[in-house]
Amino acid sequence: MNVIEAKDVWKKYKIPHEKKTTLFETLYGNLKGNTSYESFTALKDINFTVKKGEWLGIIGHNGSGKSTLLKIIANTIRPTKGEMKVNGKITSFLELGVGFSPDLSAKENIIVYGAVMGLNSKEIESRIDHILEFGGLTRFKDTKLKNFSSGMIVRLAFSTAIQIEPEVLLLDEVLAVGDLDFQKKCFEVFDRYRSMDKTVVYVSHDLGTVQRFCDKVLLLNHGEQVGIGDSEEMINVYQSLI
Ligand SMILES: Nc1ncnc2c1ncn2[C@@H]1O[C@H](COP(=O)(O)OP(=O)(O)OP(=O)(O)O)[C@@H](O)[C@H]1O
Questions:
Q1: Which terms are listed as keywords in the entry (predicted)?
Q2: To pair with 49 at 20 to 30 A between CA atoms, which of 104, 108, 119, 226?
Q3: CA distances in angstroms from 73 to 27, 79, 91, 94, listed in the order given
């Protein structure tokens, strides 16, 4: 069964030409209607499928369109052309951090997120301690998120996401924010996910983990799909582009 299906997906962004630095310039420019836009194509004709239980890696240089593609899968942005179909309860790592509220404590954010993901209060309660422990954040359970470092927020986001156990998980550079201890814990979870038939889309510059965990890899270059296939083969193609 295909969990994710991308068909002829294109994404174009509109980039304003003039740089407006003040509110007056922005309003005045808009009134005059003289803002000109340039179209930038971030993704060109992307096609792939991901089956249940498969791990798809997405690799490519900075700006090649990886995060844009992940956002389209997560349905936070829409493709300009084409179609992205997703079957299953999806947790986007990108969205998760964004959904957190800075004025709530770590514990309160977990409760809100769990409720949004459809868990009842008993199910949430039983997971809170483990989530905080996994993220190394037990001491900070009553601290408001606005007092967290960006790394702590990402750790809380990831720990919450994996405990909620989504069917499809989108991961963007999760390991980049953690220390070695956190990375080790992530690998344990990744191993568990692989044995549990979870579907994962993993965007990373860390080619070692991509090769270790992904069944297949999509290589992007300047928004174009260079290829999709065997992880080792695609990593070799990527390295030959450098
Ligand atoms: N909202 C936006 N408006 C205009 N251009 C954008 C927007 N978001 C992304 N882009 C452009 O689209 C291109 C692809 O960006 P994207 O973030 O998807 O790349 P990436 O492969 O994830 O990069 P990185 O490896 O640096 O995270 C970049 O050139 C970026 O500047």
A1: ATP-binding, Nucleotide-binding, Transport
A2: 119
A3: 34, 9, 10, 11
pLDDT at residue 193 in the model: 85
CATH of domain 2-241: 3.40.50.300
Shortest-distance atom of ligand 1 to CA 173 = 27
Cα–Cα distance measured from residue 176 to residue 28, given in angstroms and rounded to the nearest whole number? 42
In angstroms, rounded to a whole number, what is the distance separating the alpha carbons of residues 1 and 52? 6
Domain boundaries, the chain: 2-241
pLDDT at 58: 97
Q: Which whole-number Å values give the CA distances from 154 to 29, 76, 100, 238, in the listed order?
A: 38, 18, 10, 28
- Give residue 32's pLDDT band: very low, low, confident or very high (50, 70, 90): low
pLDDT of residue 225: 98
Predicted complex: ipTM over 0.85:
yes
Vertex 196 angle, CA 98 and 163, to 5° = 35
Q: Output the residue whose Cα is nearest ligand 1's atom 29.
A: 63
| β strands within the chain, DSSP E | 2-16, 37-51, 55-59, 81-86, 90-92, 168-172, 199-203, 216-221, 224-230
- Contact at 8 Å (CB) between 12 and 40? yes
CB of 65 within 8 A of CB of 11? yes
Q: Which residues' Cβ are closer than 6 Å to ligand 1?
A: 13, 15, 40, 42, 60, 62-68
Please state, in angstroms and rounded to a whole number, the distance separating the CA atoms of residues 196 and 73: 21
Least confident of 101-110, 112-121, 184-193: 112-121
